[in-house]
């Protein structure tokens, strides 16, 4: 850009040294689309070149320095509620300020002038990238390179976003999940899953046992629920998103019947579980077993039937929809 369209300006391009061989990974953008970005891991070196191309040959470009930054940033959205006599709305606003948990700077050129297009080498050695790249409902964690030509009136800058994946070792202890739930004098079931920690392309294997059946069940399904938690203290906000609905039974079961479960996770868009990332947000996954009777009542009871880490209050148990919930850890 140039002031009022006069004077010299330039285009900036950031090129990684291993751009031709480095693997790319799909990542969701804020508008829901999927783009491919260069993939990095914690501790890897980030190096490349910054190309500054003058738009008007023969004219000089005065500047106050040229630099490149490597930034790890968390951006949140502010949740606000507006209540009137007739409606209750939830409004979201961008905070405008972002928290940077990684900020590295390399000076490429001192203040002076460019008389021709020029290329600058850069290298950030063994860069710490402690968290996984993430785009959610109310928070986004991203890593990017930003090259800047500082000027008196208006800077010229260019960003190159990358994606970071974290590596997890498979746990030595991965116990099965087993729970008995029921509605008094109506229904008593036992469900069991083969383990509590899964990788993103794993298979959930389990069984449902019907020990007492005195209501007419119409069908049964398993829901995978993603819960994004942002904020702290009294300002904590939970955003639930149903990742998948998988019907495992259609029709009325009888006492003593056993229903097998085999759910493949590879076909669903999921991330690793995240706990208290930089004290800003958490991401957890829940496996809900849903049984609906012939009346299709919308009543549910997760407080009585759910496992740990489910802070939402629920109504008292009544005959109708039964939703026991189990917390899963994705690696």
Q: Care to describe what's here?
A:
The strands form 5 sheets. Strands 2, 3, 6, 7, 8, 11, 12 and 13 form an 8-stranded mixed β-sheet that branches. Strands 16, 18, 19, 21, 22 and 23 form a 6-stranded mixed β-sheet that branches. This protein folds into 2 domains: 3-164, Sandwich (Immunoglobulin-like); 177-330, Immunoglobulin-like (Sandwich). The protein has no helices and 23 strands. A hairpin with a 6-residue loop joins strand 18 and strand 19 (237-250). It is mainly beta and 331 residues long. The two termini are 45 Å apart. Helix content is 0%, strand content 56%.
Q: What fraction strand?
A: over 45%
Shape: elongated
Structural class: mainly beta
- Tell me the count of domains: 2
| CATH-assigned fold name of the largest domain | Immunoglobulin-like
Task: Tally the beta strands.
Answer: 23
Contiguous uncertain segments of 5+ residues: 1-5, 80-95, 298-323
| Rg from Cα | 26 Å
Largest sheet: 8 strands, mixed
Give the class-level CATH name of the largest domain. Answer: Mainly Beta
How many DSSP H or I helices?
0
- The arrangement of helices and strands along the chain is EEEEEEEEEEEEEEEEEEEEEEE
First CA to last CA: what distance? 45 Å
Helix fraction, binned, reads under 10%
How confident overall, as mean pLDDT?
Answer: 80
CATH-defined architecture of the largest domain: Sandwich
GO cellular component, one term: retromer complex
Biased composition (Basic and acidic residues): 306-319
Region (Disordered): 300-331
InterPro entries: Arrestin-like_C (IPR014752), Vps26-related (IPR028934)
